[in-house]
Description:
Blueprint: H1 2-19, H2 25-63, H3 75-94, H4 99-126, E1 130-132, E2 138-139, E3 146-147, H5 149-165, H6 167-170, H7 173-196, E4 200-202, E5 209-210, E6 214-215, E7 218-219, E8 221-224, H8 231-250
Antiparallel strand pairs: 1-2, 1-3, 4-5, 4-8, 6-7
Amino acid sequence: xxxxxxxxxxxxxxxxxxxxxxxxxxxxxxxxxxxxxxxxxxxxxxxxxxxxxxxxxxxxxxxxxxxxxxxxxxxxxxxxxxxxxxxxxxxxxxxxxxxxxxxxxxxxxxxxxxxxxxxxxxxxxxxxxxxxxxxxxxxxxxxxxxxxxxxxxxxxxxxxxxxxxxxxxxxxxxxxxxxxxxxxxxxxxxxxxxxxxxxxxxxxxxxxxxxxxxxxxxxxxxxxxxxxxxxxxxxxxxxxxxxxxxxxxxx
Length: 251
């Protein structure tokens, strides 16, 4: 029954988000799938951290005095942060004997997603100077692969807050703080992947090197990184890595 309730509640939220242009139709469907899985496996206790993550991503820019993007979130963007926690919820449902492990993976992957989001917001707003994690080169705040003191501290705070909300799932504060620590590690992995494997493209119109294959309405030239490795894929790999680390450690 909880799964059907989850479908109804998540579907309603997804519909509202689509109608208010926060999500594309595909994004709303993906959010419904993620939300229904989380509620179905863990009810309100599991849903609260997930809702807190998505709300913080929307409210934090305003709280920090940064303009909030009006771009609608797509299915790829929703699943980049929600797929790993959703898979952990499926693990809880399919393997009840391992539910503590899967809930810890859920907390760690969600802490990673939160840490990355908060680090980007704090780093962009307060993170000058910022450095590429692999070379130490000074770059503008907010660039993929960059780290800063403010961004790292902001990400660590976000990871610990979300992990704290997961204590009813993990069963103890010690395990929740372990998830938070892995979340911070996942945030740093995200920066490492952003600096090394994430694709970069050179625009012949404006001369800039950016992350998107289209710039100034014309195709840009792939110059480094893995062509298909965009920011969404980096986020997905980071969250999957932290959830997988839990399974390996406790396996």
